[in-house]
Design brief:
Layout lengths: L8 E3 L7 H13 L12 E3 L6 H12 L8 E3 L17 H11 L7 E3 L7 H10 L8 E3 L20 E2 L8
Parallel strand pairs: 1-2, 2-3, 3-4, 4-5, 5-6
Helix pairs in contact: 1-2, 2-3, 3-4
């Protein structure tokens, strides 16, 4: 079906796609070669504003472990209501750690946006540690996550690639 096609940008922003839907999308894309690197290429996937959750992040991580992916930008920013409270299924430490493991050997992804999720210091540290092995990821956005005042150590990196900010309520 996708043998000679080229899909550059897949956007499912704010469509209430939860972990089961994300798993189905990831599996369908993987089976058709977009993540597995046949003649198709998916460069940008935007699932921002969806209740992806840890299970959805784990499914995405399984697809990202294949370095033959053409995916360069992945947007998974959170699902917050007007008060900044998560409505349901945010990505937490388990999802962040699964992504960190998968990205240790991935050389294609350049941008990972995990803004406004529920990633604490433990998940952020796993992502920071991943950067020690992955020199290709250029932007890792963890803004508006409950990382804490101590932050994350990303020592030994030639450039500052960990973009994070703390919500004002942390102070």
């Amino acid at each position: 079906m996708f043998a000679d096609s080229y899909v550059d940008y897949l956007a499912f922003k704010a469509n209430r796609i939860g972990p089961v839907g994300v798993s189905a999308i990831t599996e369908a894309i993987s089976q058709n070669g977009i993540f597995l690197g046949t003649q198709t290429a998916m460069r940008v996937v935007d699932l921002s504003g969806n209740p992806v959750g840890d299970d959805g992040a784990v499914a995405i991580a399984k697809a990202l472990q294949y370095d033959r992916s053409g995916l360069t930008d992945l947007y998974l920013s959170g699902t917050a209501d007007g008060d900044g409270a998560h409505t349901h299924h945010p990505i937490g430490d388990r999802g962040a750690m699964a992504l960190a493991v998968a990205l240790q050997s991935n050389t294609n992804l350049r941008t990972l946006n995990l803004m406004d999720q529920k990633i604490s210091r433990q998940g952020a540290q796993a992502l920071g540690d991943m950067l020690k092995k992955n020199s290709h990821l250029e932007i890792l956005s963890l803004s508006d996550n409950p990382i804490g005042l101590d932050g994350v150590s990303v020592g030994g990196h030639p450039r500052n690639r960990l973009h994070a900010s703390l919500p004002a309520s942390s102070f």
